[in-house]
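Exercise 7. Given the components listed, write out the predicted structure of the assembled complex. Treat all entries as one system.
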Amino acid sequence: MLLGRKVESGEFEAVAVPHLNDLYRTAVRLVRDPTEAQDLVQQVYLQAWKAFHRFEPGTNCRAWLFKILINEVRHYRRRWFSAKTVPEAEQSFEETLAFEPPVPEHLQDEEVLAALDEVPREFREVILLADVQEFSYKEIAEMLGIPVGTVMSRLSRGRKQLGVKLAKYANANGVGRKVREEDSYESVEL
Amino acid sequence: MNPLNFNNRSCERSRPYFDAYLDHELPVETHQDVQQHIVSCEDCARVLEGRDRMKHLVRSAVTKEEAPLELTAALRERFRSERPSFFAYDTARWMMAAAAVLILAIAGVAALRWDRVMGFGADDSVFQTVSARVQEILRVGLVDHLHCAILAEKWKGFVSFDEIKANTRRSALGPQFIDLVPAVGSKLGSDYKIVDGHRCTANNREYIHLILTGNEDRIVSLVITEKNNESFTQADAVAVMKASGIPIYRDRQGKYEIAGFESDKYIAYVVSNLDRDSNLNVASALAPIVYRHLHRLEV
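Answer.
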């Protein structure tokens, strides 16, 4: 369309604002700083608002907003960490394990988030986009500008690392014992 | 982990596909192969179950985080105060836009003169300005029309009255509003068909929403929401017409025509891609039955 669409602020709000929580959650987990995450999300909406005349109704607004978020996070990292390029993380200790420790059933949210925060950013990114936001591999590949095969390998490596970290948190806090206590409590209630 | 099973060729072959299997990203045949293996291998079934549990743990922990209220407020403030940069368009587009504005201005002046010659345009309400507050109240209805009917493209689907009635999920109209569906249908006759009726949430606000379509891609929404300190009368709005004594207010926002009326606790909207008079016709036909329905709920 030569002139783009006429932009209505009501239309933009209706389309874009429902994704605010999802964008904020992802930003917090990517930069691990709620204040920075707020600034990033504001920046995302500002960019989206400026470019909204090019947005085609009916196309995936959520994926579009997340792509802007990913770019903003990259700018943020370049600004603060002078990271010119992020090399693919080296194989971690967790990935070298030949077995997969069982994933604990009862963990506090804080423990899950702490374990997730320890996963390298490029893996954490795909875990958040696939497992939390439920984007398809193709959508994630487009957002990150990488091939689908790389999405799959990052996801697989990231999940494996996360699994080991979760098991470590569970062992450190005696989650096995907690599970049994909760089970017995539930049976008393019944 | 059973080392015998781990060395089994079938496990080795299946495990690299576990993540894509969980994410429903495998071709059908491969998905079935993995599924068959899991049925016969307890170890792999346990591994897969663990990975699935991990997905749920992460999703549940991350989604508990909510954006702070001040962020929502700051964004809304920015939407209202900022407009997209005019220079976001390139020069060629800018020139095209300027030319289009000029043509429209000339056409507008010509149309006004023609109206006067022909005796049209006597209706003062055509030139009536609508205050920002009234625009804001009317936009509440537009938001839901855009959210469900247009952007989610529900106008293209068809949900029968039986299906609307049988809905028991959160989106059900429920006993309070289900009777509106046949009432609206019979009032508008064969010109419009009700293609959806549901309860929905947009911008943290709950709506009752009936979507109707007519010939030539006419899309009409009847939207009802509880008042949140909004009132046309308190906003000193000027009604463009009355239907059975019920004042109706209107505005055009972009390509959408919005007509609204209120009861004590609710505001109802008719939002459409019709012209001003046609939209007001629909609103004036529906206002008495909708108002009576809402009044019954209030007492």
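Discussion: The longest helix of chain B spans residues 91-118. Chain B touches chain A through 58 residues (CB under 8 Å).
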